[in-house]
Amino acid sequence: MNIIKKMAEIGPFRKPAFIYSYPPCLSRDDARRWLKKLSNGSVAGLEVLLNQTEVKIQLMNTIPSFNSSHEQKKLLLSDSPLSQVTDIESFEFYLIKPSIYSITQENMESWLSSVDFINGEAWIQVLFQKDRNDKWKSLLRQQYDDYLKGISYPSMLAPVRSLQLKIAEISHNIPISIPTIPSFEERKNQTVYRFLIRGYVRGEEIDRKVFIEDLLESLNRQCKENEWEVRRKKEGNKERIEKWSSLKAPYLRHIHPFIVESELVSLLPCTSKIKTTQVIQQEKTVTKKENIIPIFQFLPFGTLQQEPLLLDHFEQELNGSLEKLGVIKEEGLKIIGFEQGPTLIRLNIMLPKGIRLSDLQKVLMDWQTELGITDLLVLQGKEKGTGTLTLPRKNRQAVYLRNLIDTREFKNFSKDKILPFVVGATETGEPYYDDLTRVKHLLVAGTTGSGKSIWLLQFILTLLIWVPPEQLMMYLIDPKRVEFPGFSKFKNVKVYTEIEEAKQLLVKLIDLMEKRYELFGKEGVRNIAQYNRKVKDAPIPYVIAVIDEFSDFLMQDKENGTVEDCIIRLAQKARACGIHLIITTQRPSVDVVTGLIKANLPSRVVFKCSGRNDYSTVLDQKPSFNLLGNGDGACLLEGKVLTRFQGPLIAGTEEEMDAIIETYGKNQSGSAPLLLDIHSQSKEVNTSGPLDELKRYIAFTGETRITHLRKHMKMRMNDVKDLMQVLVEEGWLEAPKNRNSGYKLVKSDQERESFLSANSKEDEK
Fold it and tell me: CATH for 440-645?
């Protein structure tokens, strides 16, 4: 009896009427019968005590008896792990999403099955309280009803949900569909409990960390729709620990979430008796997260459908096709594991004796034909005698931007990033992010229908939503006039559709670049990040220039070459002063994407192209796979390896996407930085001889280098020097002071603008 009393002091029950202890192999039927024996409103729980040599589990409740096939016995415990305070850390697990989302899948082993010995001591406690008169069941249904009214993350508190409903009513001008939750319909009639999972662990810091993280991983391994997270705290107050360990039957409060009976059974140490079937669910996917970051609330979620794989059927199909090709005769391939993403399936295979990986690679094209697929990749496996097959899913899944961006992963990634963006979901469904300040500039290529334009739109929208407008200026060059009109509603965005205006913008960006470097020199800093840290009162914004249909833009400037020269200058120098280029093209041929441009744009994104040579032009290598279109892409970002991904969608239809972009633009908060002043200029015509043309060009561009002016004027070097000398005499230029210096422009910006304005009026006459 003393042992039982001592054991009770460890948990919240001073003198429980009944304690049942057993090894962790309780059947699910026993667990359900025990829960039904609990009286309404009563509190029960389980505790786990473990150290270097043993793991012991006990159930605790206040009912007088429990009939079970398991033998009742006393549980012998060592000293309480709370007896010493040194190196103790407390932890408490909680759910990220509301209780309307299920936490378990069917027929999963208990999360406690992974509990192992620890180099130290640990105590885990699961407390739960049974519903009284179905009051909590009613509250849970009310929470679900409010979810269907438009609250994607309904609070447990009714007053807070009332406020959420008002916010949802305000945002009803955006078409957001609220899907039902099938699992809730199955659970809504079950008995409801409130619950709490907490504990202590004592030991070295690394042992404590590994123990808690293993528990969290075990809980999340069986999660269906919801997700667990943990709060950790280093404990040093002995009185606080003793007070917690001696509490008398605490009733759980409104802050503790709800759970239904079938889910509670999964938290008990039960062993499933159901044999494993040959239907394997996908191991990894892009999980749906809701309202982690409120600013993304207007973006719709996508529903990712799990696609089960019939293991035997899949193996038979693979081996049958290889048998037809004469590669195997008796023993076939064995699938030993797989990963599934939105577009692709990656199979890990065991090669049969006598079959080499090269034997499969030799018949790759014929094997694709036999399987009826357009893309199959055979690679070496991680283990001896294994290989990896990558092939398309039969039913590809669309990836939505919010599923990737409204997540804790993106929130954690972007903490110390300035211009974070979403690349997409990898082959295995993992989110892939990067920072534009790290990759410098981007070259994006892809043919019509490849998903290039959709990817570019989500890229722009992500930056405009995430980065405050006072910290970012964005210029969009849209020769087609149809890609970027919705972004004109944003305060810090300017859209250009005229070629002459776009050319002038590039020249202005070069001027801005030079002015910023001059400013950096005065302040003694090397880049924009250092400057903004030093001059906190007047930071300068980052600048992004997006050029759509670069090949068309380049062709219209073939005579002068201004565009290519400006692009190269900006790509070479602009990154450190906070100016970044995004260049896209449908035709990535060598005459468009020249070697000099590629050398200064090391980060590339490519979607499906018309020929394999186009991939080589963009990536400087021929990928071993064929891109499938509709967002299937590959990226070679600076400092990283070639990665295949699925680009995300903003919304399901173009109309929804346009409405979302427009709404974000109209409701953008904050103040915008001063945009560059670009005026439409009529095409320069040589009406008054070479001297006037040279004046107009220098006034327009500010360029005074003879080599550049000679290329523009298409004149001999000596002739250009003669004209420059005339401009020196007229007060336009200052002559070089020595051999190593060049001409210096004397005219001010205002005088140059006046000259161009006067010439423009004369041309009109």
Answer: 3.40.50.300
